[in-house]
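Note to self: keep these together.
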Amino acid sequence: MKSIIRLFLFIFLLLSGIPSYAQEQDEIQGKLAEYRDLCVMIRESVTSNDLDEIANCIGFMRYVNLKDFEPGVFKFVQPSKNGSLDGHIQFTNDYLNQFLEVKMEEVRVEGDEHVTRSTAAIPPIFAVHSVIPAQRTCIYEYEGSNHMELLVVCEKAQKLGVKVDVASEGIHHQCPNTKADGIRQFVWMMKKEGKVRVSITNPGKEAVSVVIASN
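Structure:
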């Protein structure tokens, strides 16, 4: 009898560790998951001014096929245009190279002879960077269909509220300000092409940049 009680308690404790909300579905996979981990690496290395680690990030970025959303696919809803990204972290190769140019005259990334590696064969990740003012919510829309994955990474490891709404299919996912890691990820299915609305809330006292990335 005692062993049964212990088993029941173990299962209860295990399940209690799972978030009570069903908004963040299965974790993102593949290249988008790799990009998520790289964003964390970039954030930590830039914040700590670790130039060697930043050089490593540049090397890893050669295996990421980061692209802009196609014209007309992504829309800034509220506000209607993006704020200035000056002074904010961006999770791109161009940003990392510019950051290093300011810090030192010449940087050599050793250990990889294929410096000009093509990303044509790598599955693309569509991404846009945006600035969210302190204690404000920004709203975005983009077109999506079929298997959808969404990643939001903040330049700071802080709380971040994110909502995903697909009105045409009654899909409503929400992640409240409970985790101070600055990372939110969602996975869902769409039966047909439609608009995806993403609302991101910055509860902090300073403006922050985020990257919004999708498969």
